[in-house]
Amino acid sequence: MQFCARCYSKWPVASSPLDWCPRCGGVLLAPSAQDTPAEHRNFRWVARGARLGSGRRATTGSVTPTPHYAEIPRWGLQDSPPSVPAKPTPRVDALANRAGRLLVITAVVFVVAALAEVGRYAILVYNRTRLVDQWLVYASDAAVWIAGAAAPALGLYSAVACASWLVRTRREFFARKGSRDPRSRWRIWVGCLVPGVNLVMPGVLLTELTAESDPRVRRLARVWWIAWVAGAGLAVVALLWRRADSLQAMADGVLLYAWTDLAAAGIALLTLKLIRSIEGRTLAGRQRVVHRLVPATRPARDVIEPIRPVTSTAKDSVAP
Protein backbone atom coordinates (compact mmCIF):
# COMPACT_ATOMS: atom_id res chain seq x y z
CA MET A 1 0.00 0.00 0.00
CA GLN A 2 0.97 3.61 -0.54
CA PHE A 3 -0.12 6.23 1.99
CA CYS A 4 -0.79 9.87 1.05
CA ALA A 5 1.15 12.36 3.14
CA ARG A 6 -1.62 14.95 2.79
CA CYS A 7 -5.03 13.19 3.04
CA TYR A 8 -3.74 9.93 4.60
CA SER A 9 -5.65 7.81 2.03
CA LYS A 10 -4.40 4.35 1.07
CA TRP A 11 -3.74 3.25 -2.48
CA PRO A 12 -2.81 -0.26 -3.55
CA VAL A 13 0.29 -0.70 -5.66
CA ALA A 14 -0.66 -2.14 -9.06
CA SER A 15 2.18 -2.49 -11.54
CA SER A 16 4.48 0.31 -10.33
CA PRO A 17 4.36 2.76 -7.42
CA LEU A 18 2.76 6.17 -7.95
CA ASP A 19 4.21 9.55 -6.99
CA TRP A 20 1.05 11.64 -6.50
CA CYS A 21 -2.23 10.95 -4.77
CA PRO A 22 -5.12 10.65 -7.30
CA ARG A 23 -7.50 12.26 -4.80
CA CYS A 24 -5.70 15.37 -3.50
CA GLY A 25 -2.46 15.51 -5.47
CA GLY A 26 -0.35 15.05 -2.38
CA VAL A 27 2.88 13.07 -2.17
CA LEU A 28 2.54 9.27 -1.89
CA LEU A 29 4.94 7.60 0.48
CA ALA A 30 7.02 4.59 -0.40
CA PRO A 31 5.11 1.30 -0.59
CA SER A 32 4.79 -0.46 2.73
CA ALA A 33 2.61 -3.04 4.40
CA GLN A 34 -0.90 -2.00 5.28
CA ASP A 35 -0.47 -2.63 8.98
CA THR A 36 2.85 -0.79 9.25
CA PRO A 37 2.73 1.86 12.03
CA ALA A 38 3.09 5.46 10.94
CA GLU A 39 6.44 5.93 12.69
CA HIS A 40 7.96 2.99 10.79
CA ARG A 41 6.74 3.83 7.28
CA ASN A 42 9.28 4.73 4.64
CA PHE A 43 9.44 8.44 3.78
CA ARG A 44 11.10 10.10 0.84
CA TRP A 45 11.38 13.74 -0.19
CA VAL A 46 10.02 14.57 -3.62
CA ALA A 47 10.66 18.00 -5.22
CA ARG A 48 7.62 19.33 -7.05
CA GLY A 49 7.91 21.44 -10.18
CA ALA A 50 5.09 23.84 -9.27
CA ARG A 51 6.03 27.42 -8.46
CA LEU A 52 6.22 28.31 -4.76
CA GLY A 53 3.22 30.21 -3.55
CA SER A 54 1.14 29.49 -6.66
CA GLY A 55 -1.41 27.49 -4.68
CA ARG A 56 -2.01 25.06 -7.55
CA ARG A 57 -2.08 21.36 -6.89
CA ALA A 58 -0.04 19.11 -9.08
CA THR A 59 -1.98 16.55 -11.10
CA THR A 60 -0.80 13.42 -12.78
CA GLY A 61 -0.90 15.15 -16.15
CA SER A 62 1.33 18.10 -15.15
CA VAL A 63 4.11 16.14 -13.51
CA THR A 64 7.55 17.39 -14.55
CA PRO A 65 10.98 15.86 -14.03
CA THR A 66 12.25 16.07 -10.48
CA PRO A 67 14.58 19.09 -10.08
CA HIS A 68 18.07 18.17 -9.07
CA TYR A 69 21.56 19.68 -8.76
CA ALA A 70 24.19 18.98 -11.38
CA GLU A 71 26.87 19.09 -8.68
CA ILE A 72 27.13 19.25 -4.92
CA PRO A 73 25.75 22.62 -3.71
CA ARG A 74 28.38 24.90 -2.23
CA TRP A 75 26.02 27.18 -0.38
CA GLY A 76 25.22 26.89 3.28
CA LEU A 77 24.44 28.85 6.39
CA GLN A 78 26.78 31.77 7.02
CA ASP A 79 28.79 31.20 10.16
CA SER A 80 31.01 34.27 10.37
CA PRO A 81 33.21 34.68 13.45
CA PRO A 82 31.93 37.13 16.05
CA SER A 83 33.26 40.62 15.45
CA VAL A 84 35.52 41.93 18.18
CA PRO A 85 34.51 45.49 19.10
CA ALA A 86 37.32 47.96 18.60
CA LYS A 87 38.73 49.39 21.79
CA PRO A 88 38.15 53.13 22.11
CA THR A 89 41.29 55.22 21.77
CA PRO A 90 42.24 56.93 25.06
CA ARG A 91 41.95 60.69 25.03
CA VAL A 92 45.67 61.12 25.69
CA ASP A 93 46.58 59.00 22.65
CA ALA A 94 44.01 60.80 20.49
CA LEU A 95 45.57 64.17 21.37
CA ALA A 96 49.05 62.77 20.83
CA ASN A 97 48.14 61.67 17.32
CA ARG A 98 47.15 65.26 16.47
CA ALA A 99 50.37 66.85 17.72
CA GLY A 100 52.16 66.91 14.36
CA ARG A 101 49.22 68.33 12.41
CA LEU A 102 48.51 70.95 15.07
CA LEU A 103 52.12 72.11 15.10
CA VAL A 104 52.07 72.66 11.34
CA ILE A 105 48.80 74.61 11.53
CA THR A 106 50.13 76.65 14.45
CA ALA A 107 53.29 77.56 12.54
CA VAL A 108 51.24 78.68 9.53
CA VAL A 109 48.93 80.83 11.68
CA PHE A 110 51.88 82.47 13.45
CA VAL A 111 53.44 83.30 10.07
CA VAL A 112 50.12 84.88 9.01
CA ALA A 113 50.10 86.90 12.26
CA ALA A 114 53.64 88.08 11.55
CA LEU A 115 52.64 89.15 8.04
CA ALA A 116 49.68 91.05 9.49
CA GLU A 117 52.02 92.92 11.86
CA VAL A 118 54.40 93.71 9.01
CA GLY A 119 51.46 95.01 6.99
CA ARG A 120 50.43 97.26 9.85
CA TYR A 121 53.98 98.61 10.14
CA ALA A 122 53.99 99.35 6.41
CA ILE A 123 50.73 101.29 6.82
CA LEU A 124 52.30 103.29 9.67
CA VAL A 125 55.29 104.18 7.55
CA TYR A 126 53.07 105.15 4.63
CA ASN A 127 50.85 107.23 6.92
CA ARG A 128 53.74 109.48 7.93
CA THR A 129 53.44 111.49 4.72
CA ARG A 130 50.15 110.44 3.13
CA LEU A 131 46.64 109.65 4.24
CA VAL A 132 45.44 106.05 4.41
CA ASP A 133 42.00 104.86 3.35
CA GLN A 134 39.76 103.93 6.23
CA TRP A 135 38.90 100.50 4.80
CA LEU A 136 42.60 99.61 4.69
CA VAL A 137 42.97 100.49 8.36
CA TYR A 138 39.93 98.37 9.24
CA ALA A 139 41.27 95.44 7.19
CA SER A 140 44.67 95.68 8.89
CA ASP A 141 43.10 95.82 12.35
CA ALA A 142 40.88 92.82 11.58
CA ALA A 143 43.84 90.78 10.29
CA VAL A 144 45.95 91.63 13.33
CA TRP A 145 43.19 90.90 15.85
CA ILE A 146 42.00 87.65 14.23
CA ALA A 147 45.49 86.25 13.70
CA GLY A 148 46.62 87.53 17.10
CA ALA A 149 43.76 85.69 18.81
CA ALA A 150 43.91 82.47 16.75
CA ALA A 151 47.67 81.98 17.02
CA PRO A 152 47.91 81.83 20.86
CA ALA A 153 44.79 79.63 21.03
CA LEU A 154 46.29 77.16 18.57
CA GLY A 155 49.60 77.39 20.40
CA LEU A 156 47.91 76.39 23.66
CA TYR A 157 46.08 73.52 21.96
CA SER A 158 49.35 72.35 20.40
CA ALA A 159 51.03 72.51 23.80
CA VAL A 160 48.34 70.22 25.23
CA ALA A 161 48.77 67.81 22.31
CA CYS A 162 52.56 67.81 22.72
CA ALA A 163 52.21 67.13 26.44
CA SER A 164 49.96 64.17 25.59
CA TRP A 165 52.55 62.95 23.11
CA LEU A 166 55.23 63.19 25.80
CA VAL A 167 53.09 61.21 28.24
CA ARG A 168 52.50 58.44 25.70
CA THR A 169 56.10 58.32 24.44
CA ARG A 170 57.56 58.14 27.95
CA ARG A 171 55.08 55.40 28.84
CA GLU A 172 56.11 53.33 25.80
CA PHE A 173 59.81 54.05 26.42
CA PHE A 174 59.78 52.76 29.99
CA ALA A 175 57.50 49.85 29.02
CA ARG A 176 60.16 48.62 26.59
CA LYS A 177 62.61 48.63 29.48
CA GLY A 178 60.22 46.60 31.62
CA SER A 179 59.36 49.37 34.08
CA ARG A 180 56.94 52.23 34.56
CA ASP A 181 57.41 55.95 34.12
CA PRO A 182 58.66 57.30 37.48
CA ARG A 183 56.83 60.57 36.81
CA SER A 184 53.07 60.48 36.96
CA ARG A 185 50.87 61.78 34.19
CA TRP A 186 49.74 64.79 36.19
CA ARG A 187 53.30 65.81 37.00
CA ILE A 188 54.08 65.81 33.29
CA TRP A 189 50.97 67.85 32.53
CA VAL A 190 51.79 70.41 35.21
CA GLY A 191 55.42 70.58 34.14
CA CYS A 192 54.51 71.21 30.50
CA LEU A 193 51.55 73.62 30.86
CA VAL A 194 52.04 75.75 34.01
CA PRO A 195 53.81 79.02 33.10
CA GLY A 196 57.26 79.34 34.60
CA VAL A 197 57.50 75.64 35.37
CA ASN A 198 57.21 74.80 31.66
CA LEU A 199 60.53 76.55 31.00
CA VAL A 200 62.42 73.85 32.92
CA MET A 201 60.43 70.64 33.11
CA PRO A 202 59.98 69.93 29.36
CA GLY A 203 63.74 70.01 28.89
CA VAL A 204 64.24 67.68 31.85
CA LEU A 205 61.58 65.25 30.61
CA LEU A 206 63.04 65.24 27.10
CA THR A 207 66.55 64.72 28.46
CA GLU A 208 65.37 61.63 30.34
CA LEU A 209 63.57 60.39 27.24
CA THR A 210 66.54 60.85 24.88
CA ALA A 211 69.24 59.65 27.29
CA GLU A 212 69.80 56.48 25.24
CA SER A 213 69.01 57.95 21.81
CA ASP A 214 71.27 59.03 18.99
CA PRO A 215 73.67 61.89 19.90
CA ARG A 216 72.07 64.05 17.21
CA VAL A 217 68.66 63.62 18.84
CA ARG A 218 70.08 64.60 22.23
CA ARG A 219 71.73 67.66 20.67
CA LEU A 220 68.45 68.60 18.99
CA ALA A 221 66.65 68.32 22.36
CA ARG A 222 69.13 70.78 23.91
CA VAL A 223 68.76 73.19 20.99
CA TRP A 224 64.99 73.00 21.36
CA TRP A 225 65.25 73.74 25.08
CA ILE A 226 67.37 76.85 24.45
CA ALA A 227 65.01 78.03 21.68
CA TRP A 228 61.99 77.43 23.90
CA VAL A 229 63.38 79.55 26.75
CA ALA A 230 64.53 82.26 24.33
CA GLY A 231 61.13 82.38 22.66
CA ALA A 232 59.41 82.68 26.04
CA GLY A 233 61.72 85.55 26.96
CA LEU A 234 60.98 87.30 23.67
CA ALA A 235 57.24 86.92 24.30
CA VAL A 236 57.61 88.48 27.76
CA VAL A 237 59.54 91.43 26.30
CA ALA A 238 56.81 91.92 23.66
CA LEU A 239 54.13 91.96 26.35
CA LEU A 240 56.04 94.49 28.46
CA TRP A 241 56.57 96.68 25.40
CA ARG A 242 52.84 97.37 25.30
CA ARG A 243 53.29 99.83 28.15
CA ALA A 244 55.21 102.22 25.89
CA ASP A 245 53.46 105.55 25.31
CA SER A 246 55.41 107.19 22.50
CA LEU A 247 54.45 106.71 18.87
CA GLN A 248 57.90 105.49 17.91
CA ALA A 249 57.89 102.92 20.70
CA MET A 250 54.48 101.68 19.52
CA ALA A 251 55.76 101.37 15.96
CA ASP A 252 58.81 99.48 17.22
CA GLY A 253 56.46 97.26 19.18
CA VAL A 254 54.69 96.27 15.96
CA LEU A 255 57.97 95.00 14.54
CA LEU A 256 58.71 93.28 17.85
CA TYR A 257 55.37 91.46 17.66
CA ALA A 258 56.19 90.35 14.13
CA TRP A 259 59.54 88.92 15.23
CA THR A 260 57.84 87.22 18.18
CA ASP A 261 55.32 85.56 15.86
CA LEU A 262 58.08 84.37 13.53
CA ALA A 263 60.01 82.98 16.50
CA ALA A 264 56.89 81.13 17.66
CA ALA A 265 56.44 79.64 14.18
CA GLY A 266 60.07 78.52 14.17
CA ILE A 267 59.72 76.94 17.62
CA ALA A 268 56.61 75.06 16.43
CA LEU A 269 58.52 73.63 13.47
CA LEU A 270 61.51 72.82 15.70
CA THR A 271 59.15 70.99 18.07
CA LEU A 272 57.79 69.00 15.15
CA LYS A 273 61.35 68.17 14.07
CA LEU A 274 62.19 66.95 17.58
CA ILE A 275 59.06 64.79 17.78
CA ARG A 276 59.77 63.21 14.40
CA SER A 277 63.42 62.57 15.32
CA ILE A 278 62.49 60.82 18.56
CA GLU A 279 59.99 58.67 16.63
CA GLY A 280 62.65 57.80 14.04
CA ARG A 281 60.96 59.68 11.20
CA THR A 282 61.77 62.60 8.96
CA LEU A 283 60.18 66.02 9.20
CA ALA A 284 57.66 65.01 6.51
CA GLY A 285 56.63 61.96 8.58
CA ARG A 286 58.31 59.25 6.51
CA GLN A 287 60.33 56.49 8.15
CA ARG A 288 63.97 57.42 8.45
CA VAL A 289 66.39 55.26 6.46
CA VAL A 290 69.58 54.60 8.41
CA HIS A 291 72.78 54.60 6.36
CA ARG A 292 75.78 52.87 7.88
CA LEU A 293 79.16 54.30 6.91
CA VAL A 294 82.15 51.95 6.97
CA PRO A 295 85.67 53.42 6.68
CA ALA A 296 87.59 52.15 3.68
CA THR A 297 91.12 50.86 4.36
CA ARG A 298 92.30 51.19 0.77
CA PRO A 299 90.96 52.44 -2.54
CA ALA A 300 88.87 50.18 -4.71
CA ARG A 301 91.69 50.02 -7.26
CA ASP A 302 95.30 51.19 -7.25
CA VAL A 303 95.62 54.68 -8.63
CA ILE A 304 99.40 54.39 -9.15
CA GLU A 305 100.96 51.19 -10.24
CA PRO A 306 103.26 49.92 -7.48
CA ILE A 307 107.02 50.18 -8.16
CA ARG A 308 108.71 46.83 -8.58
CA PRO A 309 112.52 46.32 -8.57
CA VAL A 310 114.09 45.49 -11.94
CA THR A 311 115.80 42.06 -11.99
CA SER A 312 119.26 41.44 -13.47
CA THR A 313 117.82 39.41 -16.31
CA ALA A 314 115.65 42.35 -17.30
CA LYS A 315 118.71 44.66 -17.25
CA ASP A 316 120.70 42.38 -19.59
CA SER A 317 117.87 42.15 -22.07
CA VAL A 318 117.66 45.93 -22.49
CA ALA A 319 119.32 47.06 -25.74
CA PRO A 320 122.08 49.66 -25.45
Features:
mainly alpha; two-stranded antiparallel sheet; 2 domains; 8 helices; 320 residues
Average of the residue pLDDT scores = 82
Computed Rg: 44 Å
The helix fraction, in percent, is 40-55%
Low-pLDDT runs: 50-56
Q: Which strand order do you get reading across the main beta sheet? A: 1-2
Structural class: mainly alpha
What portion of residues belong to β-strands?
under 5%
Care to count the β-strands?
2
Distance between the termini: 134 Å
The profile of the biggest β sheet is:
2 strands, antiparallel
Q: Helical element count?
A: 8
Using the alpha-carbon principal axes, give the shape: elongated
List strands and helices in order, with pairings.
Elements: E1 2-3, E2 10-11, H1 91-97, H2 99-126, H3 134-176, H4 185-193, H5 201-209, H6 215-240, H7 247-279, H8 312-317
Antiparallel strand pairs: 1-2
Helix pairs in contact: 1-3, 2-3, 2-7, 3-4, 5-6, 6-7
Explained architecture:
The chain has 320 residues and is mainly alpha-helical. Helix content is 50%, strand content 1%. The protein has 8 helices and 2 strands. It has a two-stranded antiparallel sheet. 18% of the residues are buried.
Quick rundown:
The chain has about 325 residues and is an all-alpha fold. It contains eight helices and two strands.
